[in-house]
Amino acid sequence: MSEIAIIVEFQLKPGKQAEFEKLIRAHAERSLKEEKGCLRFDVLQPLDSDGSLIADCIWLTELYANKEAVKEHEDSPRMPILGEAIGPLVANKRLIKAAHI
Question: Among 39, 65, 66, 92, which has the minimal tally of Cβ within 10 Å of its Cβ?
């Protein structure tokens, strides 16, 4: 298998977006810097049909070189720390893994 994409959709608790964004952007930067198999890590805010930002919703799109790079990311000692920090900010989370074709 070649590259693997991860897509995560976070529905945030009201009023928690700024705090969440700060934490997740730092995580994205460190993943790109520290994990050579992390090829891309974007933090996105979806748009409504009228072009306005959808509040309290953040998407992550990540691209990894292979399954070993995904495992390295998932096993990073930063992950439990991040989970603890963002847990109280998140109302719902959906994670999708996909082959990059």
Answer: 92
Q: What is the model's pTM?
A: 0.92
- Torsion angle, CA of 45/63/72/30, rounded to 10 degrees? -50
Domain of 76 in residue numbering reads as: 4-99
Q: Which two tokens stand for residue 15?
A: 């009023």
User: What tokens appear for 40 in the block?
Assistant: 């891309």
CATH code, domain carrying 40:
3.30.70.100
- Number of domain units in the chain: 1
In the block, residue with structure tokens 């070649």: 2
Rounded CA-CA distance 67/5 in Å is 10
**pLDDT, tens digit only, all 101 positions of the chain:** 699 999 999 999 999 999 999 999 999 999 999 999 999 999 999 999 999 999 999 999 999 999 999 999 999 999 999 999 999 999 999 999 999 88
